[in-house]
């Protein structure tokens, strides 16, 4: 199946951010939906800082059945963060916070290259 390349949708407003809603991996690659949220009243989310190492754009990820390319350090950070949050939730830690949500939302700037 040929996947089209993902293109960002325009923001709904001036105070809007994009969040990644994690989905099960596709062909072993990170998969997500991108949702928009108002910065003044966002849902719980985790912010990632991921730029380290050589910025090689060699990792594919899927956004709503469309392909995108991300740098290796972002792919690593996404999988590591999701693994941590899943283990944290399974252990029953974190109370009623982003760590206890069934729907994990992540923020990272400059996702697509």
TrEMBL record:
<protein>
    <recommendedName>
        <fullName>Heterokaryon incompatibility domain-containing protein</fullName>
    </recommendedName>
</protein>
């Amino acid at each position: 199946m040929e996947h089209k390349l993902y293109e960002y949708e325009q923001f709904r407003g001036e105070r809007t951010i994009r969040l990644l809603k994690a989905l099960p991996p596709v062909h072993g690659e990170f998969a997500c939906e991108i949702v928009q949220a108002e910065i003044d009243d966002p849902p719980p989310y985790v912010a990632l800082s991921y730029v380290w190492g050589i910025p090689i754009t060699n990792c594919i990820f899927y956004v709503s059945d469309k392909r995108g390319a991300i740098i290796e350090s972002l792919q690593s950070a996404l999988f590591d963060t999701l693994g941590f949050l899943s283990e944290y939730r399974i252990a029953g830690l974190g109370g009623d916070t982003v760590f206890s949500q069934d729907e994990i939302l992540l923020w990272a700037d400059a996702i697509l290259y």
